[in-house]
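Continuing the series of single-chain predictions for the mutant panel. This is the parent chain; the variants come on the following pages.
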Amino acid sequence: MMVAAPSSASRDALPSFFARRGIHYGWVVAGVTFLTMLVTAGAVGAPGVLIGPLQQEFGWSTSEISSAFAIRLVLFGFLGPFAAAFMNRFGLRIVASVALALIGAGVLGSFAMTKLWQLFLLWGVVVGFGTGLTAMVLGATVATRWFSARRGLVVGLLTASTATGQLVFLPLLASLTQALGWRNALGLVLVMLALAALAVLLLMRDRPSDLGLAPYGAADPTPVPAPAQLSFRDMLASPIVALRDASRSRTFWVLFGTFFICGASTNGLVQTHFVSLCGDFGIVPVAAASMLALIGIFDFAGTVGSGWLSDRIASRTLLFWYYGLRGLSLIYLPFTSFSFYELSIFAVFYGLDWVATVPPTVKLAAERFGDRANLVFGWIFAGHQMGAAFAAWGAGFSRTAYQSYLPAFFIAGGLCLIAAITVVTIREPRRQVLVPARA
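Parent structure:
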């Protein structure tokens, strides 16, 4: 239901345009966030097609290249809590704009790199910082700030944009890399980053109260004012304080640990190494990337569906099935002959819960940690990226030391089964438990 905006909203022409058409501006912010996360995810996923070309041009080993990309994944995760603090103080629009500029600078700078340390700096540090500022914390913040109703669905849509962007861009990047070289392929990423930056500057708004609106679906039509702004020092300390308080909760550690496994079994392993794995079995990069795109298509359906289900079914029940089925699919893959038929079966089952774990995890974090949920989820997501970095390095080590990626897939599958068992120990709360806020 559309909440009528007071006269203060009329000073902003674009929100007024959507208000006259009965569209709550939260959906516009969600749309811009979807585009931003989709494009930055394409930058996160690009290394999946760069390993081979970088080896051929510079002679770097798989483990060396994987180590640089692992740094990016670590920063992508550990900046999450601080990104949430930056969003709380400086606003969504400023943080998203800076992030897109950093990613663009890192990608552009890589055109001229010739040394391994430059790969570490540009793709490890610069792109890592930029993508870390627009990690899943951005989607969680928009969903909790702009939506009271359909929050699970919004988290599902925004999460799907991240995972799908990482995978769907790959076939096009692989084709361009094969035809024109990896530098020209990354030119596409730069164009998409520019378009996303333009959308953020024109359409992104920080809070519903800035426009005189209540969150979408709020029972009370009165706008929720923004909380008092912390000093800069307190802002930097707020993620640490949130971690200290949340770490007293067993739920936090279960979510942190299972999200570590989630990252290890998705971004770090399959996203980074699947194209190279398929190459070991004679599958050309374009065909392998197309299979990843198929995973992305099913992921979009699975993650949006997970958001819808998370509003209706206990989160721990959903997480049990998601981790269990993912583990079985990863264990199944090494027993296949990597035929088109068998890879398609894997793509369907694995793709349906690529990041379907995120909506119920965000829901549990919001239920347990209240108005500081985005800070706490930032730390949970840091666990996700620690797992991704571990698998990105570990799979590269396996390939270098044992001439095979398959041990990494067996380990990841076993970890997912452990996560499925662990997550059922979380007790669904009867009431919301809040981490005490500090001034």
